[in-house]
Amino acid sequence: MERRPSFDVLVTRVATHLIGVNAATVSAGYEKVLENLVDYFDVDAAYLRHHDAQRRATVMVAEWPARTDVPDPDPLGTVTFRDADPVFAATEHLKEPLLFRPDPAMEDYRRRVESASGYTSISMASVPLVTRDTTTGTLGLVASGDREWSDEEVEAMKAIATLFSQLQARIDAEEHLRWAATHDALTGLLNRRGVSDLLSARLAGGGDAFAVLYFDLDRLKALNDFLGHSAGDTFLRTVGARLQRHSDADTLLARWGGDEFVVVLPGPMTEDDAYAEACRILTVVTARVDMAGEYVSRTASIGVALGIPGSGTVDSVIADADQAALAAKTAGGNQVSLFSSEIRERNELQNDIELHLRAAIEGESLLLHFQPEIDLTTDRITAVEALVRWQHPTRGMLPPVEFIAIAEAVNLATDLGRWVLHTACRTYASWRSTLGTLDIALRVNVSPAQLVSLDFVHTVREALSRYSLEPQYLCIEITEVAVVHDIVLAARALRDIRALGVRVAIDDFGTGYSSLSHLKTLPVDAVKIDREFVTHLATSRDDRAIVEAVTALARAYDLDLIAEGLEDVDARAVLLELGCTRAQGYLYARPQPADVVLEMLRIGTLTPS
């Protein structure tokens, strides 16, 4: 008869086997050890249970041999301590082995075991798994009938239970690291890596179209400023919890970064379905949150793009949804926008401009066109406005509306404005040199960022000096938006400009905010009536009333008044009737290259056409 190995040898063998077990092979590792224990101790079954502290339950994680014809639900699968029989209840905080043989006092436990395994009478040794003085599970041996347990057997079981505890702690640590690699610690949602991996798998597989939603929350910093530094984190956690509570199990939820979230809805999904679901989610994430008695909410704009399995990449579908979200925000915010070909084209243009604008400023692809300003009583040219254009290598001639806003967004507005100012002054000097004399104003538009930049006044002074231009011939034009951008810095810059002798005009007057207050507080020489009120001046009573009011304001403040967008003779007649005698627009001339404008200046007057 083969001699049974010693208990020390058994423990060593178990330790050697468990060293090579990882999270992927742990189930098979558990079963192999339990099989060996059944053979070694000559018992009918062995089991391993782990405690679920959150649910206050004990869960079967491995057993040998596997039971057949297990009832559903399994009476031994998950047992809550709150409703457990005395034997199971005793294992919740067990610190020393629990040994018993058939005993009428344990009838409830016996019936549970019989219902799940068929054993009518058992002896059992249950040994706790303990980590840092906390019971995390039990290792048990089961023998049918009556069996005694020796001290040596119990000590061996305790040693093996310790090995299982160590493995459990190691696997838990591995699982936590794996979870942390793919989840956001603040909200518990997937992180960028986690959702990207799962989204990539969906795109690579087959199946129906699904929807990807992208959104961010507006002005979280204001919460921190008002309610304390951690308020934003609390709000983000609440949003994450709401998304989990109001989403299906198949929906992927992720915090993409900062205050940005991604939601991947399962297919099949049409654009109408996706839009409706996005509207529902918008309601969920923008609902008010109780934060220490303060009820606050943040707006969000959601972009929606469809993911087509077998087409596109994670980057492309996220970019599409992000672009749609930007379109929603640009349209006023707190709404849903579906990605479209128009959005793609607009964003492709924006990306193109952002990538190549600096090179254009430093190179030779920018140019200026000039639009004359006319005295309506004499048709004499009184000024020219410099307007930048970009001769794009593939998109042709781009007007400023296509790239000025992007220049401001990527901090190139100051460089672009410096180029425009110097080029306009150089052109004016060239005209004057050619004509011998030139007594008209040069109007140059200035962006909000350029106006409040530290070197703006120096840039103007440098341009005047370099091109020997008398300051009274230069007029800086600003929009009301530029003023609102930073009223204090704007007023200071304009005062310094006026101190040089340069004139100042408010462009697009009437379309901004608090126009009257600006006239009272800012050093301004002229206002230009926005084309919106001039285009239909001859037929719109409202536009006529507005222009009449602006004319009266200009007269009251002793300001020059110029109408923009003059396109027909009837509007010209109304302007003259109301007392506005200067204008620019297509009725006289479109913006033209410098050499064409030079010929206009030779003549000095323009005829309405």
Contiguous low-pLDDT stretches (5 residues minimum) are none
Largest sheet geometry: 8 strands, mixed, barrel
Distance between the termini: 120 Å
The strand count comes to 23
Beta-strand content estimate:
15-25%
Query: How would you describe the shape?
Result: rod-shaped
Question: What is the fold named in CATH at topology level of the largest domain?
Answer: TIM Barrel
Compute the number of structural domains: 3
Q: What is the structural class?
A: alpha/beta
Helix content: 40-55%
Indicate the CATH architecture of the largest domain.
Alpha-Beta Barrel
Organism: Rhodococcoides corynebacterioides
Domain EAL: 350-605
Domain GGDEF: 208-341
InterPro entries: Biofilm_reg_signaling (IPR052155), EAL_dom (IPR001633), EAL_sf (IPR035919), GAF (IPR003018), GAF-like_dom_sf (IPR029016), GGDEF_dom (IPR000160), Nucleotide_cyclase (IPR029787), Rev_trsase/Diguanyl_cyclase (IPR043128)
Report what the structure shows.
This protein is α/β, with parallel strands linked by helices and about 600 residues long. The protein has 3 domains: about 5-180, GAF domain (Beta-Lactamase, 2-Layer Sandwich), CATH 3.30.450; about 190-340, Reverse transcriptase/Diguanylate cyclase domain (Alpha-Beta Plaits, 2-Layer Sandwich), CATH 3.30.70; about 350-605, TIM Barrel. It is about 45% helix and about 25% strand. It has 21 helices and 23 strands. The strands form 4 sheets. The chain has an 8-stranded mixed beta barrel, surrounded by 4 helices. α20 (about 570-580) links the parallel β21 and β22 (about 580-585). α1 (about 5-20) runs antiparallel to α2 and α15 packs parallel to α17 (about 485-500). The radius of gyration is 39 Å and the shape is rod-shaped.
